[in-house]
Write a structure and sequence with these properties.
Layout: H1 2-33, H2 48-59, H3 69-77, E1 79-80, E2 83-88, E3 95-97, E4 108-112, E5 134-138, H4 139-145, E6 149-150, E7 155-156, E8 164-165, E9 169-171, H5 177-190, E10 201-202, E11 213-214, H6 217-226, H7 231-244, H8 250-253, H9 256-261
This protein binds calcium ion (2 copies).
Length: 262
């Protein structure tokens, strides 16, 4: 009965592969679960506005950087895993020399994913220097994004790595859509109007102007689902926590909290 024998072997191989796949997935989640009984202790068991409030208290305990100190911090948080002399540019996705930081064409500069005009917080120590939403980006691409809200659609951004834009919105390349969503939602929880800066909140608009809001929330939630945290995003959360601000982005550790709060 050779036919049956071969089928049995095939099934066994599939079962072995499945058995390997499950522990691997669990292992990926374990580094952040390590913080549940310590860092996130006061958020445990909470949902909705209670969870948001508990997380606000937890992540507001942080070291704050000067805007000048952000340059060197980004060289560490966004270092190219394949080349320690370079950083990875958020929207472009390309690797560029750390030493090419500046304001000229061909340089990279400090992109505020929560555009600083939305709430007018500028670059004073506070939301404008918070590493959890600051990323290296090509000077020209950064300028194309400007202070636009996030939404799907538009035409290709030159050197934007697949990012799109139209007159009132910007769509990042697929690989960082979730990163962008989780950075925006971190800002919403961290800044609640109680430390001399505006209460930052997402909404479902693309014409927010200087209001302390960023859209579109429904699109950001979708992006967070479609692009879960990867090793690069988790690593930068770790570097910010260990070395610089000593606070964490809860949505990188627990992406399911996005749906619980919003
Ligand atoms: Ca990603
Ligand atoms: Ca807020």
């Amino acid at each position: 009965m050779p036919g049956i024998h071969i089928r049995t072997v095939a099934l066994t191989t599939a079962a072995v592969l499945a058995a390997f796949a499950l522990p691997a997935a669990t292992a990926t989640a374990s580094p952040t679960a390590a913080y549940d009984d310590t860092y996130y202790q006061d958020a445990e068991g909470k949902t909705g506005t209670e969870l948001k409030s508990a997380l606000h208290t937890i992540i507001s305990d942080q070291t704050k950087l000067s805007y000048d100190a952000v340059w060197d911090a980004l060289k560490a948080t966004d270092q190219d895993p394949a080349n320690s002399s370079n950083v990875i540019l958020l929207y472009s996705g390309t690797s560029r020399a750390k030493s090419a930081n500046g304001g000229d064409s061909g340089d990279w500069n400090r992109e505020h994913v929560w555009a600083k005009s939305h709430g007018d917080f500028g670059t004073a120590t506070g939301p404008g220097t918070d590493l959890h939403h600051l990323r290296p980006e090509d000077v020209t691409v950064n300028s194309v994004r400007g202070n636009k809200d996030f939404d799907a659609g538009g035409s290709a951004v030159a050197n934007g790595g697949g990012s799109l834009t139209d007159s009132d919105s910007f769509e990042p390349r697929d690989a960082v859509k979730g990163d962008v969503a989780r950075m925006i939602l971190y800002m919403a929880v961290r800044y609640e109007g109680d430390d001399s800066f505006a209460d930052l909140e997402p909404n479902d608009s693309v014409d927010n102007g200087s209001a302390p809001n960023i859209g579109k929330l429904s699109v950001l939630k979708k992006w967070s689902d479609e692009d879960p945290p990867d090793a690069f995003e988790q690593h930068r959360n770790e570097v910010i926590y260990d070395t610089y601000q000593h606070n964490r982005n809860p949505f990188i550790d627990h992406p399911e909290w996005v749906g619980s709060i919003w």
